[in-house]
Amino acid sequence: MTPVWLGLIGLALALPVPALLARATWPHLAPAAGIVLWQSLALAAVLAISGSATATALWLVTHDELTWWRVALHFTLLAIGVLVWARFWWAAWQVLSETATRRARNRRLVDLLGEPHGALPAVRILAEQTPVAYCIPRLGDSRVVISSGTVDSLDDDSLQAVLEHERAHVHLRHDLVLEAFGVLHRAFPHPLRTDAPLRQSQILVELMADDAARRTTGDKALARAIFTLAGADAPPGTLGAGGDPLLRLERLRSPATPLARGASAAASLVLSAVVIVGPTLTLAVPWIHHALTVL
Amino acid sequence: MTRLGELERSVMNVLWDSSAPMTVRDVLDSLDEDRGLAYTTVMTVLDRLGTKEMVQRERDGRAFRYSPAISRDEATSELLNDALEQAGGDRTAALVHFARTVDPSEAEALRAALDEILARTDP
Asked: Which residues, in sequence order, are CB contacts of A38 under 8 Å at separation 6+?
């Protein structure tokens, strides 16, 4: 029964569980733990599905007498396993190299176009009215890009909040978090793929960066910054700034109590442990023990 | 910013501001006089910009003439479009904050949330 159980767990972790979790708002209270939870779900799904395939392949050739179709199925499963892994590494290579190329090009353009900010060596100001703020991460030498439109429309405190937010992305290596989910998103075979993990991790890194900015500049400066960058003052149909502004403002409107934040973090971490450790202890370890005695 | 990075930016701005392709000498003359730059320095910088695919050169008699490979406006819109695209999709190369259309009801909700946060008296 091990392959069946692992398969069902894997399928559940790949599709319905992410869909349900994406609708929950409690992980937003403690975004760092929320990211850990999404990472654990992804890892657990991959482990369960590969475990199920391996267990099935072994079961086919160790039960009853060997028939040709058992052997054929066994090798088919192994071949599919190899293909899935190859696809994973191919996706990883693609995502990482595309990202690196695009980042290098963006950075080159920014360094030639952007006006350096006197006091802040990483900041480049782009002569452009559209309100924009973003960062181009690179270990030890990142760029924070803001348009002159952003500088003009924000007061000093709010500008500080934007810079703190971007700096937090850089320091907390959010680029790595998103790249990892980007790889998974591309690597998962279509029937098993949902947008939820990538999308939710994008939201959670924004919230983490917001929390970093709040600690330095306070809620009001950050709220004004989010509002202005959201382009809510811009005429309808023109481009404004986004990044889930409403969700982020609502979170500032009703700040969570420390107790609620702690509960959210605890729930995320406990769930992470459950999905990783649970199937491993109850299914994988007994199966490995069984496999070793059979072989 | 490094001195070299600074120079690349200045050289690029000179090329962008010029209407015709320029020789190394033209670029050197257009850069600030008091920098005391050597001819070879400017040549090196143009060469580096060439490797980065930011300038192109054409032969003119015994010298080369340099021009931008991409106009200032094109470069700006490439940056913005890239950022825009990523704000919607696979946002991995840059972490972008901006770029969508705000519909009136969302704008209203944003305004209401902001007003409430700003009206709060901080403890």
From this structure: A18, A21, A181, A197, A200, A201, A204
